Amino acid sequence: MDVAILGGGVAGLATAISLRRLGMTVDVFERRESVHGLGAGIVCWPNASFVLSELGILDELRSLAGTTTAMRRISIDGTELGRLDIRLIDEAMGYPSLPVLRKDLMQVLLRRTEELGVSIHYNANAVGIASDSDGRRVQFSNGLTISPAIVIGADGRMNSIARRYVAKVNRPVFQGFVNWIGIYHSDVALFDHAEIGDYWGLGARFGIVPISAHTAYWAAGIAVLSSEAREVGEDIVRLRQAFDGWPSPIGDIILNTTESNIKRVVLYDHNPMPTWHKDNVLLVGDAAHAALPTSGQGAAQALEDAWCLAHEFATSHGSPDDIMAAFTQRRLAKTTGIIMGGRAFASMLFNKDPAECKARDRDAMQADYATMAIRMATGWSAGLPLGL
Predict the structure, then answer these.
(1) Which residues form the FAD-binding domain (predicted)?
(2) By the 8 A CB rule, do 165 and 281 touch?
(3) Which of the residues 11, 85, 142, 298 has an alpha carbon 20 to 30 A from that of 367?
């Protein structure tokens, strides 16, 4: 069976690896001139690490990743609001949580894809999917036309041709905040490399994820109106002003991160939808279920898609249409919960009402973090053979 995957991000490459391991002929079509590590970094939570292990690349990724044992929540005045023991999550799920730069994750996925003989076609921007008497045709801006047995739409949240084919529209939803993301390198040991720092303010949040004592990736978010989102996001001065006076080392990190290493991201997700396939076209990753970064699960759910889809193909005796429907049914509830959970958390974090933020911080100080860790582990294990 020949499969064409539109998009060479985490979802596209992981799906290519998973299906190629089943003996399928797989081609990846990437619109850019190379596989891109868009974004600063991610935490591969244990559900992601499980899939990476199944793909045969966990050990390689571990050699490039950091280790993390806790996440500290801290208020704008430096008060500790709570501490989540990440080791409880790892122990419950049986796999490690690994913070890693996104570019390193992408290179590991790319090497494995190429080792398996998957063909990757760059500068291949899909512009349309159409029906003919022989099935579906995918058309590209460079004049190429293909008619594979199956088309996997892993072409992202913002301009997915595959989602437009399946759902008729592709309408990302702005969620009221912008992020600046960056990668910081220090000549001196600046970070407790085992602890994530999560700083909460009034309509603002700053997160620091160390990879080592010298390197961390970070994300700074502020609430904005949709009309000003893009203008605000381009303004580095606004970034510095928004987090002026926040607890150390936030000011130093912003000031000393090279501006070329700081990227603006205007945050959109998608409303959940019940149908992920039409004819021979199936959506995965952000094209199917884009969640906000506040979910902490974007890349992990893309990886889960790859594993679950391959599992359906390996164990089902039904038609491709039956397999796509079963895959959607298997993944829909979990990804919907993650989308809505990411929205709810963002709404809480970027609240600009002082009284409500004070109550939020008080609730965080009174939270049962051990129970929270087990609840997270249980939710992230759903649909996977992790014993929870």
Answers:
(1) 2-333
(2) yes
(3) 298
